[in-house]
Amino acid sequence: xxxxxxxxxxxxxxxxxxxxxxxxxxxxxxxxxxxxxxxxxxxxxxxxxxxxxxxxxxxxxxxxxxxxxxxxxxxxxxxxxxxxxxxxxxxxxxxxxxxxxxxxxxxxxxxxxxxxxxxxxxxxxxxxxxxxxxxxxxxxxxxxxxxxxxxxxxxxxxxxxxxxxxxxxxxxxxx
Length: 175
Description:
Helix content: 55-70%
Order of helices and strands: HHEEHHHHH
Oligomer: single chain
Structural class: mainly alpha
């Protein structure tokens, strides 16, 4: 999020203040640690995730208009928005490069932060509920009890990271 190509690198912590205010609004409390066993794609919670994501994008667009003394028009990435949503409400995985690569590798659903991709991600969790619950129990014996979407994020990130490491190893061997 704070890479050189990102506009928020030129801002201080106060760029996040409007986002925090929105996340604390009563209407978004239902998104905290969504129960993936009961939520349905046609439920209001799923629509609310995307409504909130749109609001967050708008806030960062407005905050990023002037960056380092220059007028810019940058659209916040899915990575930024979903990392905020994962870190604050745990209602979606963070669609960063490694998570997306892991999703592409599994190739069971679109690796995009879209209604279809998100709904399929929830279905993936349900189909693999036993394994996710077992991982959650094992992790919580030594650390925190992660919410479902954090487990999903960690699963796909781990696959993406392993793929990246294999690619590095191949380059070193052929290099």
